[in-house]
Amino acid sequence: MSAVFLAFSKERPAPEDEAIKAYLDAHELIPKAQGTDRFEDQEFDVMYFGGCYLGKHLDVIRDMQRQAVEQELLTVAIECILQETTVPETRRVVDQTPAPQMQALIANLVQEFHQATSFGANEAGYLKVTLEPAVIQQRFLGLVGNRVKLVFRTSCIGFELR
Prior knowledge:
By secondary structure, the protein is of the alpha+beta class. It has 6 helices and 5 strands; from the N terminus they run E-H-E-E-H-H-H-H-E-E-H. It has helices spanning 17-26, 51-54, 57-83, 88-96, 99-113, 133-155, and strands at 3-9, 33-39, 42-50, 119-121, 127-129. The chain starts with a strand and ends in a 7-residue tail after the last helix.
């Protein structure tokens, strides 16, 4: 017999929290008990389930959490690669790209590189990102080039270029 406690921070919700709660609701998974608890100066909503009751749903919940963690790790890694680049062309484009557009480009890269080959394990067995900076930089420049072309084409609609 096993017990499963799901704790959702009230002050700093994790990205996957709402999706997990929606999953529990959609599958009519009702906790045996629920309440609030305080841990490390944070307030949490806590749900208690029997492990057998959740059964195969635990795998789905684990995968939802892993997806969120992978996205966070990829975002940080890609931001670091782009911010720390010394390649002149990439450095120039990064410096000239406004923050909202940069966030959209990084989100696009995260989605594109969110695949099993982008991850490995460190010496302690924890998940780590295994991206090649040159590949990220090249793809970033490609995305920027495509967006520039798209903006140019959109702004030229109705005009004839010769």
